[in-house]
Design brief:
two-stranded antiparallel sheet, transmembrane helix
Length: about 425
């Protein structure tokens, strides 16, 4: 199949304002013949609510650990290497288990898999609070695997149900991811202090939102299952340079994000902040991501491609990281805001590229699996490298080189991935 220039994601039906959200949801759900009994508006908002609640639960398991990492390490007697491994394993599992997502979806249906994995995620978060060191590592691995599977499936759902409005919906999805990360980063230490000064209860609390999301996702779990009786094979992705550029950009910008999730509080504590202060700075930085998480994909589709937006977001990310690492502490909040704006837009654009570069939902699902499976495996090396360099040098200054190298390569990959093209892949029934 020849590669053609890809139109803007909403070229056929532009979404000019966020007020169009209800209309696009109604349009996306209008062809669902399995639930004709329910009013269209109710179905539309149930779908939106379900997607948002699922997305809210895809980061707390990762961002809740960082503010408590020193306390957990002291309590369990973890070495610096073990603490580094604890920040790396969940990210590695995001990539290792991502290829399971399309296999499970074909067997059980996408919506049912999301429901089952949400319940697994809740159990994994609870497990981290039990059985000491064994439970901590086992729960972290299972949580990373759960997030990896769900994260692959949701872009495919958005491409299928919101094909003409995916820019707006990917922004909403990413905004919910950022909000969940920010809430966990800022609230975990105060929760632990409130709950008998127990880090285990503070971490375990985040199992409850996952169970709530599963309850609200139930109406979706009985829908569209018949569509999965027909299997599709997608070929050509692994040979396509554009698909690899999307994958590399996804992995490298994610590496910087997980360095922030895993190590930014420790870096700030090393610079003189208390754990509560460090957690609040990280939370503030992540919550600012809401602005660009929603706006960057929408704005990027107003132009001919996404290259300028990618360069801008990655440049802001690097500036914020260097500011948090080297600049005087009296300007720390300003640099944290710059960092958040950059990372929110960079991640949202990475997810949007998966949809923009795909011709149909089947290609999008498989490109999502490739970009997140391989990309998150690459991403896990960033937190690990920071831990190794910190242990070797006894300080944090040298990790600036890691930020710079990752950021420059990410910009180079983004310049390729941001071109208005489709990946050269074919989907066919089997």
């Amino acid at each position: 199949m020849p590669r053609n220039a890809s139109p803007s994601i909403n070229s056929t039906e532009p979404v000019r304002h966020l007020d169009d959200l209800e209309e696009l949801l109604i349009d996306a759900e209008a062809d669902d013949e399995q639930v004709q009994q329910a009013p269209v508006v109710v179905r539309a908002w149930l779908l939106l609510l379900g997607l948002v609640l699922v997305a809210l639960n895809l980061r707390p398991a990762l961002s809740s650990m960082a503010p408590l990492l020193s306390q957990v390490s002291d309590s369990l007697g973890l070495s610096a290497a073990q603490a580094g491994l604890l920040t790396t394993l969940p990210v590695l599992c995001l990539g290792v288990f991502a290829p399971l997502a399309p296999i499970l979806a074909r067997r059980f249906g996408t919506e049912r898999v999301v429901l089952g994995i949400l319940l697994t995620l809740g159990g994994a978060i609870a497990l981290r609070s039990c059985l000491g060191e064994v439970g901590l590592f086992a729960g972290s691995i299972l949580a990373g695997a759960s997030i990896g599977v769900i994260g692959v499936l949701l872009p495919g759902i958005i491409k299928r149900d919101f094909a003409g409005h995916a820019g707006t919906m990917m922004g909403v999805y990413t905004m919910a991811l950022c909000l969940g990360a920010a809430l966990a980063a800022g609230a975990t230490v105060p929760l632990s202090n409130y709950l008998n000064d127990s880090w285990a209860l503070g971490l375990g609390f985040w199992a409850l939102p996952a169970l709530v999301a599963a309850i609200f996702w139930l109406p979706q779990a009985g829908k569209r299952q018949g569509a999965h009786k027909v299997a599709y094979r997608v070929s050509g992705l692994m040979r396509d340079p554009l698909a690899w550029q999307v994958t590399l950009y996804m992995g490298l910008q994610s590496s910087l994000s997980y360095i922030v999730f895993g190590w930014l509080p420790s870096i700030l504590i090393g610079r003189g902040l208390t754990p509560t202060q460090a957690g609040l700075v990280m939370s503030g930085s992540v919550i600012v991501q809401l602005i660009t998480a929603l706006s960057a994909p929408w704005l990027s589709t107003r132009g001919k491609d996404q290259r300028l937006a990618i360069v801008l977001m990655m440049s802001m990310t690097l500036a914020g990281l260097f500011g948090c690492l080297y600049a005087p502490l009296d300007g720390l909040w300003g640099w944290a805001i710059v960092l958040g704006l950059g990372q929110g837009g960079a991640f949202s654009l990475a997810l949007t590229l998966i949809v923009l570069r795909s011709r149909d939902a089947h290609v999008a699902a498989n490109l999502s699996g490739m970009a997140q499976g391989i990309g998150y495996t690459v991403a896990s090396m960033g937190p690990l490298a920071v831990g190794v360099v910190h242990e070797m040098t006894g300080g944090w200054s040298a990790v600036g080189w890691i930020f710079g190298v990752i950021g420059i390569i990410a910009i180079a990959a983004g310049l390729g991935a941001g071109r208005a093209l489709y990946v050269n892949a074919q989907s066919e029934k089997i």
